[in-house]
From TrEMBL:
Residues 6-137 form the Retropepsin-like aspartic endopeptidase domain. One of its GO terms (molecular function) is ligase activity. Keywords: Ligase, Ribonucleoprotein, Ribosomal protein. The keyword Transcription does not apply. This is Ribosomal protein S6--L-glutamate ligase. InterPro entries: Asp_endopeptidase, Peptidase_aspartic_dom_sf.
């Protein structure tokens, strides 16, 4: 248990391989799997392997930024929501950068339009790495709205 970093109830995440320089995630130890807001999800074949193409609008209440992503499809998975409803979601594995750490996580693709956060960071991604201080936010680094928009300046419509 030693050497675990402390994170807040939300943190800024980076997905370099997906081209996402900053997305604020809600840290949720009640959720097993991490999830990212995705739309226009489409499965396609690349060299005989299933891949998935999708779009992420990473900033809540700002649809002017749209990132087109592609990743190898890991599998589809039945997910039970906090309301108890089950739905099938596509899952990818990709590198997450959280603070100074980069490691692979599983990520389901879901519509999070009605949620306050574009991403949910579940316990599989946190396990044996972090402790959560639920009263703090962005302990691994804060970004101002201007800094976030600067990171996305090349993507604005």
């Amino acid at each position: 248990m030693e050497n675990l970093k402390i994170i807040g109830s939300d943190e800024w995440c980076v997905f370099k391989k997906l081209g996402i320089p900053a997305i604020k995630a809600r840290v949720d130890s009640g959720a097993k799997t991490s999830s990212i807001h995705a739309s226009n999800i489409e499965i396609f074949s690349k060299d005989g392997v299933d891949w998935v193409r999708f779009e992420v609008d990473p900033i809540q209440d700002d649809s002017s930024i749209l990132i087109k992503c592609e990743a190898k499809l890991l599998r589809s998975k039945m997910i039970k929501s906090s309301m108890g409803a089950s739905e099938e979601r596509l899952m990818i594995r990709t590198a997450l950068t959280l603070g100074e750490d980069t490691y692979l996580i599983k990520l389901t693709l879901a519509s999070r339009d009605t949620m306050n956060y574009r991403m949910l960071l579940g316990r599989e991604a946190l396990n044996k790495r972090y402790l959560i201080n639920p009263v703090e936010q962005c302990l691994l680094g804060k970004l101002t709205q201007e800094e976030v928009l600067q990171k996305y300046s090349q993507f604005s419509k």
